[in-house]
Amino acid sequence: LLNVPADSSLRNPVVISNPLGEDTSVMRTTIIPSMCEVLARNYNYRNAVARLYEIGNEYIPVSGKELPDEPARLAIGMYGNNVDFYDIKGAVDEIMEEMGIMDYDVTACAEGCPIEEYVAFHPGRSAIVTKGDTVLAIMGELHPETLENYEIGVKAYVAKLLIPEMMSVSVTEKTYKLFILKFKLLTLFNIFIAYFKSKIKWY
Predict the structure, then answer these.
(1) CB atoms within 10 A of CB 196
(2) How confident is the model at residue 193 (pLDDT cuts 50, 70, 90)?
(3) Residue 119 to residue 103: CA distance in whole angstroms
(4) What is the 3-state secondary structure of 57-119?
């Protein structure tokens, strides 16, 4: 449904031996279809606006290993109320800031993008986030064919954030010296105000 190429590694999932049903017979290699399905469900339930997120794992087969890698991912999805690319980018920017990730690059998705799901996005309205050689996220408007495949009748926006990669470049130590200085100055100011108020005689 994401229109990934036939030879994509995303089409090589881990198969479950005793699945509960055909829909759950393989382990997902990408979190994006899950978000698209939830967006589609909300749209089909006639919810005019949706703002959703999911934190979960992808399951990536590793040659020579019995068990797959299970990287944690964060997916964000939205549609309705005139949302556009800058709404999804704003959500991603805020998360980056909260994690202490600064000076990252945002570049347009194109052929050869390191995140294979780029084909599910509109080529002129999507981007990847990187810091140095580390890919942190992909975000943007879903491709019209993707929207059609999921029967979503409005423009929808999705982001996928790579949590371990983000943690590897995040800065967790923060300096609060400036905050302490401002607090001391504000406290001193309030003391002066209280002092002068006590000296003023009201008639």
Answers:
(1) 9
(2) low
(3) 26
(4) ECCECCCCCCCCECCEEEEEEEECCCCCHHHHHHHHHHHHHHCCCCCCEEEECCCCCCCHHHH
> What pTM did the predictor assign?
0.81
How far, in whole angstroms, is CA 92 from its chain's centroid?
5
Angstrom distance (rounded) from CA 183 to CA 177: 10
Judge whether residue 144 has pLDDT over 90.
Answer: yes
Closest CA to 37 of 147, 140, 125: 147
The answer to whether the Cα torsion of 143, 145, 149, 151 is positive or negative is: positive
Give yes or no for a contact between 30 and 54, defined as CB atoms under 8 angstroms apart: no
Q: What is the pLDDT of residue 26?
A: 81
Answer whether 72's CB lies under 8 Å from 150's CB: no
Cβ neighbours for 158, distance < 8 A, ≥ 6 positions apart: 32, 35, 36, 39, 75, 76, 77, 88, 120, 121, 139, 140, 142
